[in-house]
């Protein structure tokens, strides 16, 4: 930075003393010409810096900073854009901090946003799990309001279709906001053996995972390999659902629900199908070899999210980033049990959505195409709850 400043200053001084100016288009206003050299330099520096700021700097800004700064979703029809680990989404809704059978953990992170289908599914799971005997869900990270890469944590969770649910049941007494920030989770897996700690595992965990896997929208559930092994070793009767439960690093205190691309998201990139079968075979045995746990050879290599710029994301994500805010978080909070998102206040403030003409849709800039399918309303009512 110092070197840049020095070289800029040098070039500016040369420009001011008769050498070819750095920026030919900079016209020095008349009053400035009578100023001393320092004043002229300072004035030019301001102009040059302004020019630099307006240059492609915006495009090169890290996407995680831009998306991480958004407090509210983009008002639009719900749409996931890109892939789970490289994308964003519009029309997100929030799960309320408290529900009859759930509580949102780490609320200060503001990651309780998702595609309406994802939020509805979590709320439904909370009710179904309660009926199965699980006291309630502690809801972990879902997505940022407009998705995108995060400042910390997760590679995925970018398109509103991933959610983490703790494997700790909701306590009897309501957690305070402070407890939700600080309460530590229970690790269910021994870090050395990668096996489940039997004293902590209960049949209720199996029922919860089975219930989560039972929904058609759910394509995968990620768990620690030790948990997958526990299921493989103990589930009796119907085992078909084990196919959706996939072993992965981490996920030793929470499980991760991933639903598929939803209707209305033509730019959503589907993941590969899971391999046929229960997954209790060689593919699981591999996790209990040394190979997956070798130390990272390049621990300092930056993660993808630390390099992604807007240019790395689908072009439509710029429109999501630029999209209008709703009136408030409350206006786009999804209350289950048949109470829809409060859409009305949003409708009054949302600008008319851009629409592609029938003939020229393909020629429109990406920022318009991103919302081409947006109907006249700002936020549509959520679709019927999954499974209903
Ligand atoms: Zn996750």
Automatic annotation (TrEMBL):
Q: Which domain of life is it from?
A: Bacteria
Keyword terms, alphabetized? Hydrolase, Metal-binding, Metalloprotease, Periplasm, Protease, Signal, Zinc
User: What NCBIfam families does its record include?
Assistant: PRK09429.1
Protein's name according to its UniProt entry: Penicillin-insensitive murein endopeptidase
Q: Which organism is it from?
A: Mesorhizobium ventifaucium
